[in-house]
Amino acid sequence: MSGLLRTMRLAWLEAWTNRRGFWTQVTVMLVNDVVWVGFWVIFFRQVGEIRGWDTDQVLVLLAVLTTGAGISLGFLHNVRRLGTMIGNGELDSALALPVPTLAHLLVRRVDPIHIGDMAFGIVLFFGFCNPTPQRVGVFLAGTVTAAAICTGFLVIMGALSFFVGRSEAGDLGFHALLLTSSYPVDIFAGATKVLLYTAVPAGFMTAAPTRLVDEFDPLLAAATVAVALLVVAIGVVVFNRGLRRYTSGAVWTSA
Amino acid sequence: MTATSAVQSGAVITRERGHLIRASVLTRRVMGTAARRVVGARSGLAVIGLFYLLVTAVLGSLWLTAANANGGSIAGYSTVAIVWYIATTESGTISVPMRLIEDIGLDISSGQVAAEMQRPVSVLWMRVLTEVGTCLPRLLLCLSVGTVFALAVVGAPPDATTLPLAAISIVLAVTLNLIAQHLFAGAAFWLSDAKSTWFLYQKLVFILGGMLLPIEVLPDGLEAVARFLPFVAMAYAPARLASGHFEPWLVALQLGWIVLAAAGATWLYRRGERRIMRVG
Fold first, then answer.
1. Average pLDDT of A5-34?
2. Is there a contact between A171 and B219 if contact means CB atoms under 8 Å apart?
3. Whole-angstrom Cα distance, residue A47 to residue B65?
4. Are residues B177 and B58 in the same domain?
């Protein structure tokens, strides 16, 4: 554990060393997120309400998404690169270390641009989403489950490279998850909606925590936590199973 | 006109015609090579097609639901028109590489552009032609998928007679987008870190260009601003045509912006290349 903590600290220092680059990327992401908020404000100004969703709820959804995804993609940046690293045979340096390989790979890199996402989400919630103590508690728990689902899902997508070789499945899975979780899930119907609560767990990543912030439901909360744990567990199992099939690419990198 | 000046004029005309012929041959070869390379990488094309379908399905569902909730139309677009609008904007934008500005910036700062300056052709226009050749097969794929999607979801377009003009318009939109990205990326000749600007450029196209929402939905002041900027020519123009609005002046607008952007990019890259030769 101390090895992992030390790796996390070094990854943070690496990102923090180039201050100008750090703050530039954080600022760019803040502007990006403000634009998305602007889109939704304009949309609901035109539409009013749509299937029970309005501006306030979408702001909570965006806060959960940006904070949760920011934690996952910001502090565990390699989660998005796993497929490429596996496909290119770049795991050798991590395999030689006396720490769990997956954990080491995930904490090895910090991405400032997604730290900006996380910061934005927190400011958005506390500034514009009526942060009562209960809502804050549910929001914080929701962002943890969102981060867990995002991380677990991307690990599964990346680990597929052990079995099918280098493919774009990881990237497509990433875009599918981020895209579908950034829209109110109730605009979809039928099989699509089922898909968003199962194969691509976007519904549990953002829509469920958003509903819980507005109106806490113990059953829904339990289901969300269970799904988060399940997705993480599947990710770990798939990665470790795949690691047995890993062949070295003779590429010694610092991951 | 004397015999000598007639011969000289004829020689100039012949020389200019020769330049034009060589330029058109080079253009076809560069674009053709780039297009063949993209078509050869089928898995990459499949990913683009799937991603396009996903984005169009999500955004199309959103606007379709919104239109149905508003009595069957929104901002003057019927349910049929809005789906064709979204299918068109997405095909024009997704067929263009998202992080091109970052890639160009990296090539400038790494010296790749300096190396390309050794060739006896314009660095800028070789790159633009290559990117256009790369994007055309993607555009064709996205338009095909988008047409099938729109037909399946809402049926025939509101006015099929506007589609030929929309097809021309979307090619112009992609071309303008590529030239404008090169223009944006030209800042890297002077700035050491311009790569994050692609995020901001993308958002300008998304909102002020009408990619995510028709510009008629924007607040009045913002809509007026958007109409004066080039981004509407990159996404809104072909989508407006494809959604059944016969407005040929949009194509003229696109041509005007292409000329301006091309002139601006040429000037900027000439200055940038001179800077590289002086500073390195």
1. 83
2. no
3. 10
4. yes
pLDDT beyond 80 at B15? no
pLDDT for the residue numbered B8: 62
B133 and B222 share a domain? yes
pLDDT > 70? residue B280 = no
- Residues in B whose CB is inside 8 Å of some CB of A read 43-44, 47, 50-51, 54-55, 57-58, 61-62, 65-66, 69-70, 74-75, 193, 196-197, 199-200, 203, 206-207, 212-213, 217-219
Domain range enclosing B8: 1-40
- If asked whether residues B95 and B3 sit together in one domain, one would say no
Based on the domain organization, do B117 and B182 belong to the same domain?
Answer: yes
How far is residue B127's CA from residue B135's CA, in Å, rounded to a whole number? 12
Residues B26 and B84 in one domain: no
Whether the CB of A48 is below 8 Å from some CB of chain B: the reply is yes
- In this prediction the ipTM stands at 0.79
Q: What is the number of structural domains in chain B? A: 2
Residues B87 and B212 reside in one and the same domain:
yes
Interface test with B, best of A40, A168, A183 (most B CBs within 10 A): A168
| Domain definitions of chain A by residue range | 2-243
Residues B82 and B211 in one domain: yes
Strand partners, B73: B78
The predicted model scores a pTM of 0.85
Name which of A51, A60, A41, A55 is nearest A212 in CA terms: A60
**Average pLDDT of span A81-106:** 85
Tokens of B247: 């407005």
